[in-house]
Amino acid sequence: MTTYDPDNIFARILRDEIPSDRVYEDPEFIAFRDITPSAPTHVVLIPRGQPPTGPAALEDSDAPLIGRMILTAKQIATQLDLDEAGYRLVFNNGPDAGQTVFHIHLHILGGKQLGPVA
To answer: What is the total count of domains within the chain?
Structure first.
């Protein structure tokens, strides 16, 4: 999916139409606890505005955004005390990968030993 839906759930969270348990916020990103966590700590990091819909929609010009997302995720993981034991960062792309919201986002998972991914 490459067409951005301004009424997707993350856009509605950004507009405060849907409440979220925010753990981080700055002028470019917000991060909040996932409502159906896959780990004891499961935070979703999203950019503000109308970003690409997912990894497949990224272009070369989006490299700085993705770099800042990863560095922000690292900062959040440290804030949540996940840095010592470890954490996982996940971008999903498309329905077969489990992407349900087409607003690029990064999952931060930790708080227990996570199983292998592949």
So the answer is: 1
Catalytic residue among 42, 103, 105, 107: 105
Is 56 within the bounds of a domain? Answer: yes
pTM over 0.90, yes/no: yes
Position 71 confidence tier, pLDDT thresholds 50, 70, 90:
very high
Contact 109, 73 (CB under 8 A): no
pLDDT tens across 20-30, in order? 999 999 999 99
In a domain, 116, yes or no: no
CA dist., res. 16 & res. 73, Å (int): 22
Q: How far apart are CA 104 and CA 86, in angstroms?
A: 23
| 105 in active site | yes
